[in-house]
Amino acid sequence: MKIGLVQLNSGEDVSANLSQAEALVLEAAGQGAELIALPEVMHLRTGEAGRYVEVAEPIPGPTTQRFSALAKELGVTLLLGSIGEASDDPQRSYNTSVLMATDGTVTATYRKVHLFDVTVDDDNGDRESDRYLPGNTLVTADLPACKVGLSICYDLRFGELYRRLALQGAKLIFVPANFTKATGQAHWMTLLKARAIENGCFIIAPAQCGRFPGGFEAFGHSTIIDPWGNVLIEHDDAPGISVTAIDLKQVDQVRQAIPVLQHLRPDVY
């Protein structure tokens, strides 16, 4: 299977962000990608919390319909890393990842469970709970090639979530992200490798890059990690695409060689 990662530097213009995303999806498909993944908050990055509620929409809605049509036209599986999903709360939406099949149907939606309420340093911090409601459900989906698991950005720091996705059969787990540059330089690759190695799975991590108005600078470095912990792709810190092939048989090989999922001790911990 050929996987395409789309790295964006989304800003305050939703229309421009979606147009850039669409163009890069087309470019990845042109290079033979069969599954294409976009980053978190692909539709909007701004320091104005209220704008996330203003642009939130139902699912299905205009954005998912647009990209569903694109997935069907190209015959690709497409992950919208996340967009704002409207809620009943007038001040907050959901940060929701959407997985689309090759026929354009929405096969799974995942609302980000762990919200990033953190002060990194004097210049970097965020309170996602000011603009988002947390999800409360883990999500896997069956694709023709394998079962996949969904997660978003800050979820990466909670290994329990990834273990549960692996135990539910996921061989490939998405981690669309908008990681800060400060924490990205320190932890991004280490955490991605850990989640891949400890679960014997592929990690697919498309990311945002660059600074946006009123906000922090994102790390970029969109990445694919194989079940042995090898880095198959590491993009730079600029918008663009990366495409590579993966061999899903490697998941079974690694899980047979190091069968940690069979050796768990729930009676002890």
Description:
This protein is α/β, with parallel strands linked by helices. The chain has a single domain (2-262), classed as 4-Layer Sandwich (Nitrilase/N-carbamoyl-D-aminoacid amidohydrolase). 28% of the residues lie in helices and 27% in strands. It is built from six helices and 17 strands. Helix 1 packs parallel to helix 3. The longest helix has 19 residues, at 181-199. The radius of gyration is 17 Å and the shape is globular.
**Into which percent range does the helicity of residues fall?**
25-40%
CA-based gyration radius: 17 Å
SSE topology string: EHEHHEEEEEEEEHEHEEEEEEH
Secondary structure category: alpha/beta
Number of helices: 6
**Sheet with the most strands, sense and barrel status:** 7 strands, mixed
The number of strands is 17
- CATH A-level architecture: 4-Layer Sandwich
Mean pLDDT equals 96
Rough shape? globular
Proportion of residues in extended strands: 25-35%
Helices, strands, pairings?
Blueprint: E1 2-7, H1 14-30, E2 35-37, H2 49-55, H3 62-74, E3 77-85, E4 93-100, E5 106-111, E6 117-119, E7 125-127, E8 132-133, E9 140-142, E10 147-150, H4 159-167, E11 172-174, H5 181-199, E12 202-205, E13 209-211, E14 217-219, E15 223-225, E16 231-234, E17 240-245, H6 249-257
Helix pairs in contact: 1-3
Top keywords for this entry?
single chain; 269 residues; alpha/beta; Nitrilase/N-carbamoyl-D-aminoacid amidohydrolase; seven-stranded mixed sheet; six-stranded mixed sheet; 6 helices; 28% helix
